[in-house]
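FAQ: What does the model actually see?

It sees only this:
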Amino acid sequence: MLPGDERLVSADLVATRSIAVRATAAEVWPWLVQMGQGRGGLYSYDRLENLVGCEIHSADRIVPEWQSLVVGDPFRIHPQVALRVCRVDPGEALVVEGGVSPSGEATTGSTAAPYDFTWAFVLVPAEDDTTRLIIRERYRYRAPWVWLMVEPVAAVSFVMTERMLRGIRDHAEHAAASSERPTT
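And it is asked to produce this:
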């Protein structure tokens, strides 16, 4: 069980992806905590996201003003669509939750969304100052037809998440290599 799984125990669709990052969890965390539209972006395909009006601009540096995030804060994926931060374990896990109604309106716990959703970003320290970055999406359908809406989105999410994993990895590894981390 990963952090965030407890928020949505019985899921109809679960997608878990991960990547090894040659940086410590403390070096990866700043890239996660600043994520979101109007903040550090999503480190994915900004141009594709912007085709649908997301106005995403992924940061190429750590921005001090974006290093604070608390439970209840919005996690924007579009200027008018925000999920809600439901768990912040610095250096370990960031979890957001919510849903989007068929009209495109973001919801958190409301019956307006036909599904419940959690999105977890988990850091697992490994040997030699490396970290396993895990991203997990969990969906619970509230109506039988919802899979027709969610599963095509999940296919697109696969492509975007793979790029997100590589984007976070590349930024964190570059930053870690730039710092003067002592070698052992």
